[in-house]
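Annotated sample (chain length 173).
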Amino acid sequence: MKKIIKIKAKPISYGAIRKRSAVKYPIFHFTALKNDTAVNEGRYYANVNTRSAGAHFFIDRKGNIVKSIGLNRVAWSVGGSLYTDVKKTGGAKLHNIATNYNSVSIELCDIADKYPSKEQIEAVKHVLKYIRKHCKNATRTPIRHFDVTGKHCPATMMNDKVWKKFLHDIGEK
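Output written by the structure step:
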């Protein structure tokens, strides 16, 4: 298994210190980019990012893992208003339940037009194990950004059939 590379994000990407015991939800996102890598995303958030946005982890198709924000920090990743089409899409069922404060965000790179690779799936398993080792209450089944605000993220997994396949592939319920 590949090791976790640390590339610390700029402070604009994260907020307050929190107790790791507050973490309950692993939340999946996608970068919405083609051919991006975990290292490039980590470098972007470390050097370029100017928005209040970030993620704890980035995982690319080769299974590379970058840790960008410490588990003891709130990442700006799932806050905000509901998307206007949630009644149509069925998203946001966990709005104001899963929050930036009680979640760990995992960005999947280069899945804008494809399903995660085998190496990505294995890296996801590794990251979930790591999160649960350090955040003992992170026992909930992973969710999508879509489930929190209705954002079409990860767009390739908005379809419940695809999402359930992904959960099965990473060994979750």
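Annotation: The longest helix spans residues 118-134.
Annotation: Residues 78 and 99 are 6 Å apart (CA to CA).
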